[in-house]
Amino acid sequence: MSAITLNGVEAPCPEAYRDRGPRSVFCGLTSVVWMHRKIQDAFFLIVGSRTCAHLIQSAAGVMIFAEPRFGTAVLEERDLAGMADAQEELDRIVTRLLERRPDIRLLFLVASCPSDVIRIDLKRAAHRLSGRLAPKTRVLAYTGSGLDTTFTQGEDSCLASLVAEQAEPADSAGRSLVVAGCLPDVVEDQFRRLFEAMGVGPVHFLPSRTSEPLPAVGPETLVLAAQPFVGETVQALERRGARRLSAPFPFGEEGTTLWLKAAADAFGVDPARFDEVTAPGRARAKKALEHHRETLEGKTIFFFPDSQLEIPMARFLARELGMRPTDIATPYFNRSLLDAELPLLGSDPCLSEAPDVDEQMARCLDLKPDLTVCGLGLANALEAQGRVTKWSIELVFTPVHGYDQAGDLAGIFARPLVRKSLLKV
Fold first, then answer.
1. Is the peptide bond before 305 cis (omega within 30 degrees of 0)?
2. Phi, psi of 360, deg, nearest 5
3. Which has the minimum average pLDDT: 11-15, 229-233, 277-281, 335-339?
4. ∠ CA 118-121-127 to the nearest 5 degrees?
5. Rounded to an integer, what is the distance from CA 368 to the centroid of its chain?
6. 267 and 298: one domain?
7. How many C-beta neighbours within 10 Å does residue 338 have?
8. How far apart, in whole angstroms, are the C-alpha atoms of residue 332 and residue 120?
């Protein structure tokens, strides 16, 4: 057991054990589903197999003839066998794409497992294509490969590629705040209004709704992570001189308040002003959470590793709704990014990083938790045994950040338990 200092007070921090063995994770290409909806003049071109194309189309629930802002350059047998020049093929496909979709301002070349395995250099292709297509269209490359990654890490790689192209700051650049992590537009608007009311700014959201480059990042830039899986992005910002603000993630009333407080303190906001601005939202969030407390309080919950949201979710459910986390497993334990979450979590739950899925399944079956949070691949097996499950991917597709979504977040966990009670014979 180690300790972490939070707000000047030393608090115990749970240790996480790391296992070795088979794991069950979802593909990083899935992040394209929410990223293409956020950046409204960007296009995501996946370089992969037909399986990749079927996956992304099914996950997005969009038929390809609807012309969404993503597509797949399918690798054929000639490509896999090295009989075709991949760079020439990419040039041809990109040219055809831009002729058909001239509104594209930012093109992402997204690597997949097949393109990584046969070593297609998409970064070189992006650099070459940018030189030819600029300034009308910028081309960037990142990997969404499912090889030893989780489905949320695709977003992290995408945002890190955006940071890499930012300009150097001017000497006169003043203090600014960057919120790192993809947020639904409605949540972004809510946070922007709160920051403006407190006098915090200028505030930039990464990613933004358009492909306009992020303003220059430097020593006067403060970073507030909105998602616990943007470690690579935060490191890229820090390498440019930015400083990360330590804070819990904005889930629930408590997490949102502490997250906003970190920014307010960094910008010297008067505490009375902070309380005045946040009081209405805190009251709404507490009222919304009370609606679900009776269903969730005292119930046990078990987290399989899937989204990297497991630790903040466990903290929210335990502290604000009285649930009892038994196991909290996460695919990657970023202690630096979670430094403000861990003391709030306490030392009772079993915390693990990338555990053996077979051993964890056996432990879950033995503990018989009231609710199990897991990926789609494990949920059916558990439901077949009469267990109550919740798909962790829903936490990414649903607006769950901030005061006004606190009740919706609690409802995600309450609904399976309510359904079970209604189905009792």
1. no
2. -70, -35
3. 11-15
4. 165
5. 29
6. no
7. 25
8. 27
Residue 96: both structure tokens together: 């055809």
Pair of tokens at residue 187: 């949540």
| pTM of the predicted structure, to 2 decimals | 0.90
| Domain contains 321 | yes
CA–CA distance from 265 to each of 187, 200, 222, 258, 417 (Å)?
21, 10, 12, 10, 39
**Beta strand 2-6 with 9-13: parallel, antiparallel or unpaired?**
antiparallel
Asked if 206 and 214 touch (Cβ cutoff 8 Å), the reply is yes
Query: What is the 3 state secondary structure string of 182-208?
Result: CCCHHHHHHHHHHHHHHCCCCEEEECC
Do 303 and 415 share a domain, yes or no?
yes
In a domain, 195, yes or no: yes
Please count the helices (runs of H) and the strands (runs of E) in the chain.
Answer: 17, 16
Tell me the CATH number at 52. Answer: 3.40.50.1980
What average pLDDT does range 73-89 have in this prediction? 71
Residue 216's φ and ψ, nearest 5 degrees, are -55, 140
Q: What is the pLDDT of residues 174-224, one digit of tens each?
A: 899 999 999 999 999 999 999 999 999 899 999 999 988 878 888 999 999
Q: What is the DSSP string of 237-293?
A: HHHTT-EEPP---S-HHHHHHHHHHHHHHHTT--HHHHHHHHHHHHHHHHHHHHHHH
Number of domains in the chain: 3
- Domain range enclosing 110: 28-149
Is 52 marked as a binding-site residue?
A: yes
- The confidence score (pLDDT) of residue 376 equals 81
Q: Which amino acid is at 272?
A: A
SS3 403: coil
Phi, psi of 142 (to 5 degrees): -155, 170
Same domain, 303 and 413: yes
